[in-house]
Specification:
Helix 14 packs antiparallel against helix 15 (237-249) and helix 27 runs antiparallel to helix 28. The protein is an all-alpha fold. It has helices at residues 2-5, 11-22, 29-45, 49-62, 67-80, 83-96, 101-113, 117-130, 135-147, 151-164, 169-181, 185-198, 203-215, 219-232, 237-249, 253-266, 271-283, 287-300, 305-317, 321-334, 339-351, 355-368, 373-386, 389-402, 407-419, 423-436, 441-453, 457-470, 474-479.
Length: 485
């Protein structure tokens, strides 16, 4: 009896003690209700939420006026993500006892779960007014402030929780999240590590540490942290996913796909998992698999611009430029401020030979992101093809001002000078490009043409032959752009 009703003791002993008492048919209904509630509390703390709720249900059948049981069942509903049922229980409790701080705290947690942060904050305000020493209420209000991007208020609340309870692992974890959002990864890592020291068996603390290490580019340490999270919780889909991302960023595309596979098995309705796996397949040149994953990601979540962009890119790589443009159109409609989507469409128009539309898209992209040297180069090249030579030259100059060591732009400007009949400057640019990339077939061709124009027949023909050896069709292709030996 002491194991069940005593205030001390491990949850496992409490569950055993209460179970032994409940097997005794001689207990009164009041005692049975109390034993069921206490066993449910221990089960909930151990994460056995469904069993806990079943015990709370039976306890309330025997003692339907026990507000503690309603409050504690709401806690379990919150843990299961069943926020509407939690709110029903908590409204019942607060309606009968508006002085119970724990009920306001739990209702605030339910509102947090439903992303109704103003209501959540109001409940946490009431909880800390009723009980100024309620560390969990301060912590949970900090969670709500963080969700609303009020990071200084979040930090103040979490630090108050830690002042009241210096060994509060969840508060260290949450403060780590605030530091992460502020971009202070060193402090975030320190807090996550402290949370882990206090509660080394909590998977989400290792998971959050891994996410921060990955954001800082420490992929090996990130993978180790995700490994720890998965040892504790093998069915942690998000940890498989984030470990896959870390492996992808490290260049381990096969390992990334294995993790994405595991994440998808655990959570097959998550569009982001299919999107990332599709991207990994695409990088490996597995276009069919990539497109199937992108299709599924879009089926699950049609209004994600990133998925349209990646599918459009895969379609463009496969030469399906009209389908690619259709995807880029949707991506741009969903997020018109992302320059990548506009550049993707511009590149597809370029591949179709529609240089006017390509230039229009590159111009839009440059208004969105004028620091992207590669787009200045792309517009330079399309303008060169169309004969807009002064504008092309200005674009290439700007690209090289932003990135003076880009062989592609030196190559483009060399061809611009060729069209301007300035073979001296053209050759200088091709020489510089070949210093950076000696195997560039287009720069070899361009230098060959410049040499021919300067009367160096032997050198010119040698360069053109070297270009043909790399790409047998290069002379004919560049003739279509107006460049002939």
């Amino acid at each position: 009896k002491d194991a069940c009703f005593g205030r001390d003791g491990a949850d496992e002993l409490k569950i055993e003690g209460c179970s032994a008492l409940l097997s005794d048919g001689a207990m009164s209904s009041v005692e049975r209700a109390a034993a069921l509630r206490l066993r449910a509390d221990a089960l909930a703390r151990r994460g056995e939420i469904d069993r806990a709720i079943a015990d709370y249900d039976e306890s309330l059948r025997l003692a339907p006026e026990d507000l503690r049981t309603y409050n504690n069942r709401a806690f379990a509903y919150n843990a299961r993500g069943d926020y509407d049922r939690a709110l029903a229980d908590l409204d019942h409790v607060i309606g009968r006892d508006p002085t119970l701080a724990a009920a306001f705290n739990n209702r605030g947690v339910a509102y947090n779960g439903k992303a109704q942060y103003e209501r959540a904050i109001a409940d946490f305000d009431t909880a800390v007014r009723l009980d100024p020493a309620h560390a969990a209420a301060f912590l949970n209000r900090g969670v709500a402030w963080r969700a609303r991007r009020q990071l200084d208020k979040a930090l103040a609340d979490v630090e108050e929780a830690l002042r009241q309870k210096p060994d509060y692992a969840s508060a260290f974890n949450e403060r780590g999240g605030v530091w992460f959002d502020k971009g202070d990864y060193d402090r975030a890592i320190a807090d996550y590590e402290q949370a882990i020291r206090l509660e080394p068996a909590t998977a989400r603390f290792h998971f959050n540490l891994g996410g921060t290490l990955a954001a800082r580019g420490e992929h090996e340490r990130a993978i180790a942290a995700f490994d720890a999270a998965l040892r504790l919780k093998p069915d942690f889909a998000a940890a498989h996913y984030q470990r896959g991302n870390a492996r992808f960023d490290r260049g381990d595309h096969e390992g990334a796909i294995a993790d994405y596979d595991a994440a998808i098995r655990l959570d097959p309705a998550n569009a982001a998992y299919f999107l990332s796996r599709g991207n990994a397949h695409n990088v490996r040149g597995e276009r069919g698999r990539a497109l199937r994953d992108f299709d599924e990601s879009i089926r699950l979540q049609p209004d994600v611009a990133e998925a349209r962009f990646y599918r459009g890119s895969a379609r463009a790589d496969a030469g399906e430029h009209d389908l690619a443009i259709a995807d880029f159109d949707i991506a741009i409609r969903l997020d018109p401020d992302d320059a990548r989507y506009v550049v993707g469409r511009g590149d597809a128009y370029y591949e179709k030979g529609d240089h006017e539309r390509a230039i229009a898209d590159y111009s839009t992209a440059l208004r969105l992101d004028p620091r992207d040297a590669s787009v200045w180069n792309a517009r330079c090249w399309s303008r060169t093809i169309l004969g807009q030579l002064q504008e092309a030259l200005a674009d290439c100059d700007e690209s090289l001002r932003l990135d003076g060591s880009d062989a592609n732009t030196l190559d483009s400007r060399g061809f611009t000078y060729l069209k301007m009949d300035d073979h001296v400057r053209a050759r200088a640019d091709f020489e510089a490009a070949l210093t950076l990339n000696p195997a560039s077939e287009s720069s070899l061709l361009g230098r060959g043409i410049a040499r021919l124009k300067a009367g160096d027949r032997q050198g010119g023909e040698a360069d053109i032959a070297a270009a043909r050896a790399i790409d047998p069709g290069i002379v004919e292709r560049f003739a279509g752009y107006g460049f002939r030996p």
